[in-house]
Amino acid sequence: MSLHLRSLTITDEFWSHYRELVRTEMIPYQWNVLNDNANITIEKERNDNNIPSEKSHAIENFKIAAGLKQGNHYGWVFQDSDVYKWLEAVAYSLSIHPDAELQELADSVIDLIALAQEEDGYLNTYFSIEEPERRFKQLAESHELYCAGHFIEAAVAYYESTHNEKALHIACRLADCIDASFGKGEHQIQGYDGHEEIELALTKLYSLTKEQRYLNLSRYFLYERGTDTTFFARQQAEDSGTKPVIAGMNHRPLEYYQAHQPILEQQTAEGHAVRLVYMCTAMADVALLAGDTAMLEACRRLWKNMITKRMYITGGIGSTVDGEAFTLDYDLPNDTMYCETCASIGLIFFAFNMLKNEARSEYADVLERALYNTAIGGMALDGKHFFYVNPLEVHPENSRRDPGKSHVKFTRPEWFGCACCPPNLARLLTSLHKYIYTVQSEQKAIYTNLFITSTATLEIDNHKVQLEQTTTLPWEGHVSIITHTEQPTSFTLALRLPYWADDYSLVVNGESVVNGESIEAEVSNGFIHVDRIWQSNDKIELILPMEIKEYTAHPLVRADIGKVAIGRGPFIYCAEEVDNGEHLHLIQLTKNQNYQYEFDEQLLGGVGKINVEAQKRTITSQWEDVLYASQVSTTYDATTLRLIPYYCWANRQPGEMLVWLNQA
Amino acid sequence: MSLHLRSLTITDEFWSHYRELVRTEMIPYQWNVLNDNANITIEKERNDNNIPSEKSHAIENFKIAAGLKQGNHYGWVFQDSDVYKWLEAVAYSLSIHPDAELQELADSVIDLIALAQEEDGYLNTYFSIEEPERRFKQLAESHELYCAGHFIEAAVAYYESTHNEKALHIACRLADCIDASFGKGEHQIQGYDGHEEIELALTKLYSLTKEQRYLNLSRYFLYERGTDTTFFARQQAEDSGTKPVIAGMNHRPLEYYQAHQPILEQQTAEGHAVRLVYMCTAMADVALLAGDTAMLEACRRLWKNMITKRMYITGGIGSTVDGEAFTLDYDLPNDTMYCETCASIGLIFFAFNMLKNEARSEYADVLERALYNTAIGGMALDGKHFFYVNPLEVHPENSRRDPGKSHVKFTRPEWFGCACCPPNLARLLTSLHKYIYTVQSEQKAIYTNLFITSTATLEIDNHKVQLEQTTTLPWEGHVSIITHTEQPTSFTLALRLPYWADDYSLVVNGESVVNGESIEAEVSNGFIHVDRIWQSNDKIELILPMEIKEYTAHPLVRADIGKVAIGRGPFIYCAEEVDNGEHLHLIQLTKNQNYQYEFDEQLLGGVGKINVEAQKRTITSQWEDVLYASQVSTTYDATTLRLIPYYCWANRQPGEMLVWLNQA
Hints:
Chains A, B: GO terms for molecular function: hydrolase activity. 2 copies of one chain form a homodimer. By secondary structure, chain A is an alpha+beta fold. Chain A has 3 domains: 3-435, Glycosyltransferase; 437-543, Sandwich (Maltose phosphorylase, domain 3), CATH 2.60.420; 548-663, no CATH class. Helices cover 35% and strands 20% of the residues of chain A. A 7-stranded antiparallel beta sheet of chain A has the order 1-7-8-9-15-11-12, with no helix packed on it. In chain A, strands 17-18-23-21-19-25 form a 6-stranded mixed β-barrel. In chain A, strand 11 (505-508) and strand 12 (511-512) form a beta hairpin. In chain A, helix 1 (13-34) packs antiparallel against helix 3. The longest helix of chain A is centred in the first third of the chain and has 22 residues, at 13-34. Chains A and B meet through helix 13, helix 16, strand 16 and strand 22 of A and helix 13, helix 16, strand 16 and strand 22 of B. Strand 22 (628-630) of chain A pairs antiparallel with strand 16 (548-553) of chain B, so a sheet runs across the interface.
């Protein structure tokens, strides 16, 4: 008995738009950036003179490392990863939309990377050009294994998409170099990179090549992490290099790197948010591939802490700019947080790998939450402007004049000095089809995580089965899946019952399904499972009520006390100044309001908007030149509060934005 | 016709306690610190490795500069000012409480300072010891004129208290050196110090010596400020020194130094809060002493902006730790602010100098607000522990684990690396008698700013008049003033009608005063003026209702929306975890509550406490492992909210603290 997913094609209107943007805008645009051909403003993500940002220079770095040009490395020590993430996005894009010219370009980049790789497989333009003697000697800051991981991910994707073996060959040589250099052997480094990434890349390389050493190495890095808490400090003390690898970075606590404790002992999601979720992504994969139940338990523990105590309602994570990090339970300030786009993308990776381990809808709920809100909120509708930081409350004057909010942008800049987020989005969107289903092969079950119009081709016991999913989501709640089979085939088709739907109805071949009747439909772990012998043109329909929800945060979230956030389906909504005037905090919802939903074709490329009657506090003459007063009479004007989905904020004129709304 | 204030003696119980603490605890304690004899923990006010804090070394620096010892300067570049502020506090203390031994000690410090002064009058141990060639070449950071100002202030106070001319002589030589070095002359420096202070010191020196050059120099510094916005940058470019005077400081914008515009053009209170109020203090004095109405207008403008848009209800100023600075109008976050003790002390200086210009109760109201809340809140009841930062909302775990709140301490440390606040408090408290009255000599009027039990001796047309003020404030609202005259004397006695009293009654010699009856009592600018021929044992009584007030902030203060702060008389109240349990934000006041006031002798050295019935939100089982939920039923438990005056928070076990309380 077996069930495998062979291919997936997205034809969904909402998502095809984004994927086309990646192909037609982001990939060419990023290529220009990587080659310093783009006439754009590269914006620093923070006010910090240590940040190199005049140009990308990323391709130039490879040419210099390859010996094709003279010069110095420029940019971040992890600048190479921009090229790798571009390459990975190209790989996925080619799998969706073949393009000989683009493939030729990517092949040439791989040729260049091959030239930049050293004899022994080592690959890193910064250290090859500038400081070869410091190789692997400053792992807290060097990002060498981080960059290697991104190349390996790209190579795996490129092989899967194009069968180009050259990139894969470079990746294996690089992985072999790392495998030789790290471990418990006499001349090996017993340590790990400051930024997790190699771990998750090695599991992908293992999954493709079945080379056990790669899985073992990933596991080694994970288990080594945090066991010897003096590792980074010792490396720094022993390093003879005089200049910092990254200026101003060496004061971070070990939690920043998740290196404060062995990972199985870590009870809470700590430190740099992207690193944490990258680590967890690898842990979940290792748990699955190595059957490591202790690792799975650790994943569940970190997941639970993060999701039930440290995640924004938009799927953002990282409560502080200082270290782009988690802080403490229930500390979720809306106007100073970080909520990096990459962190939500990493959260999606983690959620998906947990789904591969165990079909529980909570993982897919979070995946969907991060995807439909913070991830796509990280890019403008034009596909050319990007947020690094995704706030839930913005006041442009505060961003301009309060240094503590200078990282909170109110318009999406064109590019960033540290350009991790845009290419990360590109690779997520082009690989989105991978996230729709997960398969539990042994149970012969396929789980529908995301409702996206698409066609999936399965192989079940050597027979081809197609699932033709058609949905009105994300705007309306109808999902239908039609099966196409070569012969009647028995398997379980499970559909997620999302957190935002209080109810559902299931119709199979036109008949409503009620438990105990002709069709078995068992609900467990948030999925409704239909186990039957499927015929061609069987049709299963799931109807989800698309009610407008008022969400309340846990009472210990001080930032949200007395406030509600509005959601409909997968979307969290927000108010913008352009629709509501300034001083959004003066507007308050009254209880039991009647929300009006309307899809507006003309608005922001077509979005469902929500209007609701509300009241706006008036600033009476009593307050002229008065800051504090007793015996205040509070008066309100009636107003209509207009809300749009959070993901499309900051696509019109700049102004205030607010997710958590005051409630009377 | 003339009216002069000759002497003042405070006998008030509340304030005598504080003044005694300065004499018996702070002055000896600080002396030990200055001599590195104290067995104390010197706490960094921020997590910054650039801060020198192992020891004070301040007296040692003088010994080295004086040639009595070998060695290097240690500590901040402005370490000298700790000695000067100690000396100033000693001066005031000696005027209250003669102490031959202490005076001898202070004389010996002055002898030491005299030895450290250079031939030409220059005085600064850092530059004399370490970098004499950089004298006056890095004024943005060097604090040379700032330190000079503090010495001059101390010398003036010491002369007034002890008639010791040596300190005054040093001060004049120092002022002459500065006068020779700065100005529009050919070989003079056309510039000013990064930290205002010399300006206000020079007006004091002028007032004592009547040397017009000192007033002119103060005025010069003020008018020069911000006219040439390239001054600091040019000095930095021309400076041949290689090490920074203060590490990490040179990135500050000109607003930080109030050097972005000529001061008459500055419309808003910007930059480092202490600097701003020190500048304004000098401006108000120059306006008075030089009859400079444009300067007075500028003072009024900056005052109004600060008081009506940028001041906390506790009289704290400085909304951000970054630059210890103002941010923008109505931006008053309660848990990340700075609200430095010194800034509120500077605000008191400014308010008092404005009162000297014009008798308007708003200045005295703010003076009182800052004094009774943030200023004395800056020290523990034991007189040995001090806050630098005075928050309005504290959560110890957030201070521990959120880097953005690491500056917000929840217990008062013993001392600080940058020890400006404790000695600033010492000199304020020992000179407090100066703030009780202001005199408008030409109108033959005396204004009662503060209600403090005390005896004032006036000279009116060469006759002695005593005002014996007795008050039950700050806890109850009765004030009486008995006049003692040599002969019936005509003058106006004006009493402030404080902002916290909606009503008042005035009784003169046992008779209620109603306008138009036998006694004239005119209310204007927030004072009630009684103009009559006073006899010995005339008695004027002012009865102020001590109602408990619910204060609301201007609706544009987002941090306080939906919240109230409780006050009674001059005190703002707060809730502490020790009285109310954890999660103070879950408690909410219901409208029109019945507040209970009770003076508790046993509590915190004797304070008036306030209790009120309130409700505390329960965390129901619905929230187990849930972060966001719809269809939430909110339930409350009845509770009694217990409040204490803000100034005495953090004197019991550590925990949460909250000023702005949620209101249902």
